[in-house]
Amino acid sequence: MKTQPKPEIPHVASLPQDMIELQQSIASLPEPQRFHVMQMFDRVAQSTHRRQRILGLVQEALGQLRLDMKYLLFDLEATRRERDDLRRSREDETGF
């Protein structure tokens, strides 16, 4: 019987513990069953890895958005202070 090449799995360390345990259980199956189940496991593992990467990107984008919001609020407050100072100086000059 010819063995099929094993598909690439994302880094095992980045998988949840229950998936690592499942992989170990699959490894104990007889060869014909193991190959078919392992193909499905590999797809799930790749999907999990992809979701983890996407979640990381979303978290990074949210962090950047929070920082941008802080800068925008600071800029808004500075603009308001400048506007109020300009109004006061005009009122002082014109008396209104």
Question: In terms of topology, how is this protein built?
Answer:
Layout: H1 17-27, H2 31-94
Would you tell me the overall average pLDDT? Answer: 88
Strand count, sense and closure of the main sheet? Answer: none
Order of helical and strand elements = HH
Computed Rg: 29 Å
N→C terminal distance: 97 Å
**What is the total tally of β strands?**
0
Number of helices: 2
Helix percentage: over 70%
Counting helices, strands and paired strands, the structural category is mainly alpha
Low-confidence sequence ranges: none
Residues in β-strands, percent: under 5%
What is the approximate shape? rod-shaped
Description:
The chain has 96 residues and is an all-alpha fold. The protein has a domain at 57-96. 78% of the residues lie in helices and 0% in strands. Helix 1 packs antiparallel against helix 2. It is rod-shaped and about 95 Å long. The termini are far apart.
Considering the chains and any ligands shown, give keywords for the structure.
mainly alpha; 96 residues; rod-shaped; single chain; 78% helix
In brief:
This protein has 96 residues and is mainly alpha-helical. It is built from two helices and no strands.
